[in-house]
């Protein structure tokens, strides 16, 4: 069986469309806000990865969201650019249509809640009103594009008969993709499989549209529910890099894709993902958001292909397939570790960056190279992860605030004193402050140089590599008016890495301040 789709043409039944919502559902979760340049970097990386659709944002949410969706629409050439809108929000759909207008391939994704719980308490609407908004929302979206997606928010907890009515109305009024999300991560794989089978069997016109699945991970079942949905007939997967998203997150793109590739005997579907790029995109996102993946994370965690057990090591040495069901190289891992030293030149450094998957502008390469030379003087051995840490630090776009320098006087016999130099909106600011230890003094100096009301909610320090000369990687979480942001910094000096992390978090907070979330629709 095939389906004719406005963006993808004729689609075979085994074709799976990858719909990435890292920049929308992922980015709106606490602490994960990105600025415009960071979103553009991620969008370009996702297009290069082979993602079919990028949900670029919620244009009506703020001027910043609108601008980021519009800029992504202007930038991408192959991937469908999608804007989110509420079905009953006339301005939502107009904003989405205007934002995606420059895209070569564009989509509007409109949604409304359909479960009894959501309709009664969130929307305060009767079912018939919801049906009317589904009809009007999809008709309005078709004024801007032929590629229209409709979602039944809390679809997995919607009464089957009413869900069928909603889907029928959406199709009749122009939707070409129908998404049934497990919004609160409540369902099981069998239940998701049954929902899609029911809709395909009962809804008139179901054979003309693509069914989509969007699963949250509240019970740790997001990937399993996605695979169950595929078995039920869904052919679009909504997911995020590293599984980021509201609460416990979304289904992880890298896990779904490698499940399909590794168990092709069971999931005989095709997709377009360039899997050796998975690790690089994962690390890019972790750098931008300052949220590292846990070590035992499937596919992209640093322990995903590590073996410590003697029995496992023995098996791996004899035949890697004894304990590895995919090759590390297939998802972007390499075996290189030792790299450059203090005598290495700029050309060698650029070659190493290319080997590690970085494509950087000349000015960023130069800044990273200068920091590399300083690091190489401090460390006897420079590893790939050292280079990744300092390059990631330089590629963060500190729009308004940049770290310049830090001088410390500290010891057990006197209060610590920090003299900090920042560049704020192009102007140099210097502050000298005493504190209860060097980190406290440095953070107080930031507060003096750039006054703010945010409070420190988390401060953690880890090592990038092994050894006493390892670079420190520091994470700082700031909280202001209920908004949380995380920043990361890396440096051979632990206090400098902490300052870099704090400054990174402040820049993200400035982005977060201007973002507003639209209120829920209500009668």
From TrEMBL:
EC number of this enzyme: 2.3.3.13
Region (Regulatory domain): 402-523
Pfam families assigned to the protein according to its UniProt record, in alphabetical order: HCS_D2 (PF22617), HMGL-like (PF00682), LeuA_dimer (PF08502)
Keywords: Acyltransferase, Amino-acid biosynthesis, Branched-chain amino acid biosynthesis, Cytoplasm, Leucine biosynthesis, Manganese, Metal-binding, Transferase
Domain Pyruvate carboxyltransferase: 16-279
GO cellular component, one term: cytosol
InterPro entries named among the record's database cross-references: 2-IPM_HCS-like, 2-isopropylmalate_synth_dimer, AIPM/Hcit_synth_CS, Aldolase_TIM, LeuA/HCS_post-cat, LeuA_allosteric_dom_sf, LeuA_bact_synth, PYR_CT
Binding site for Mn(2+): 25, 214, 216, 250
Cofactor(s) of this protein: Mn(2+)
MF (Gene Ontology): 2-isopropylmalate synthase activity; acetyl-CoA C-acetyltransferase activity; manganese ion binding
Catalytic activity: 3-methyl-2-oxobutanoate + acetyl-CoA + H2O = (2S)-2-isopropylmalate + CoA + H(+)
Enzyme superclass (EC): transferase
Pathway membership: Amino-acid biosynthesis; L-leucine biosynthesis; L-leucine from 3-methyl-2-oxobutanoate: step 1/4
GO terms under biological process: L-leucine biosynthetic process
Job of this protein: Catalyzes the condensation of the acetyl group of acetyl-CoA with 3-methyl-2-oxobutanoate (2-ketoisovalerate) to form 3-carboxy-3-hydroxy-4-methylpentanoate (2-isopropylmalate).
Subunit-structure text: Homodimer.
HAMAP family for this protein: LeuA_type1 (MF_01025)
Family membership: Belongs to the alpha-IPM synthase/homocitrate synthase family. LeuA type 1 subfamily.
Protein name (record): 2-isopropylmalate synthase
């Amino acid at each position: 069986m095939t389906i004719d789709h406005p963006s993808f043409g004729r689609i075979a039944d085994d074709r799976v469309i990858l719909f990435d919502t890292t920049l929308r559902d992922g980015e709106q979760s606490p602490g994960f806000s990105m600025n415009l340049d960071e979103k553009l970097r991620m969008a370009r990386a996702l297009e290069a990865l082979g993602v079919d659709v990028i949900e670029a944002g919620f244009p009506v949410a703020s001027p910043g969201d609108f601008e980021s969706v519009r800029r992504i629409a202007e930038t991408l050439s192959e991937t469908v650019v999608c804007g989110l809108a509420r079905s009953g929000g006339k301005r939502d759909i107009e904003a989405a249509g205007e934002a995606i207008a420059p895209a070569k391939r564009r989509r509007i994704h409109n949604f409304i809640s359909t479960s009894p719980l959501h309709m009664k308490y969130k929307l305060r609407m009767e079912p018939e009103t919801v049906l009317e908004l589904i009809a009007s929302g999809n008709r309005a979206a078709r004024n801007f594009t032929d590629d229209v997606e409709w979602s039944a928010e809390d679809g997995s907890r919607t009464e089957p008969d009413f869900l069928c009515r909603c889907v029928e109305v959406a199709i009749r009024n122009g939707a070409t993709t129908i998404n049934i999300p497990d919004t609160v991560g409540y369902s099981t794989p069998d239940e998701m499989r049954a929902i899609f089978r029911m809709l395909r069997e009962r809804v008139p016109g179901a054979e003309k549209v693509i069914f989509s699945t969007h699963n949250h991970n509240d019970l740790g079942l997001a990937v399993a529910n996605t695979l169950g949905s595929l078995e039920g007939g869904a052919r679009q997967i909504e997911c995020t890099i590293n599984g980021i998203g509201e609460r416990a997150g979304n289904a992880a793109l890298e896990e779904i894709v490698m499940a399909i590739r590794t168990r092709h005997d069971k999931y005989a579907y095709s997709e377009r993902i360039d899997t050796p790029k998975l690790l690089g995109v994962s690390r890019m996102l972790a750098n931008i958001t300052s949220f590292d993946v846990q070590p035992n994370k499937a596919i992209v965690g640093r322990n995903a292909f590590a073996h410590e057990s003697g029995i496992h090591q023995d098996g791996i040495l004899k035949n890697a397939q004894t304990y590895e069901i995919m090759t590390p190289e297939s998802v972007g891992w390499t075996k290189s570790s030792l790299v450059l030293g203090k005598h290495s030149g700029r050309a060698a450094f650029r070659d190493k960056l290319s080997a590690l998957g970085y494509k950087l502008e000349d000015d960023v390469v130069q800044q990273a190279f200068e920091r590399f030379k300083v690091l190489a003087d401090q460390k006897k051995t420079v590893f790939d992860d050292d280079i990744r840490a300092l390059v990631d630090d330089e590629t963060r776009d500190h729009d308004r605030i940049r770290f310049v320098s830090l001088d410390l006087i500290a010891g057990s016999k006197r209060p610590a004193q920090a003299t900090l130099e920042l560049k704020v909106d192009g102007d140099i600011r210097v502050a000298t402050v005493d504190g209860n230890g060097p980190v406290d003094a440095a953070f107080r100096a930031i507060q003096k140089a750039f006054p703010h009301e945010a409070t420190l909610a988390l401060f953690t320090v880890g090592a990038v590599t092994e050894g006493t000369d390892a670079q420190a990687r520091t994470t700082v979480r700031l909280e202001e008016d209920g908004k949380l942001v995380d920043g990361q910094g890396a440096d051979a000096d632990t206090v400098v890495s902490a300052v870099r992390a704090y400054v990174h978090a402040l820049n993200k907070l400035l982005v977060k301040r201007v973002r507003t979330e639209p209120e829920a629709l209500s009668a």
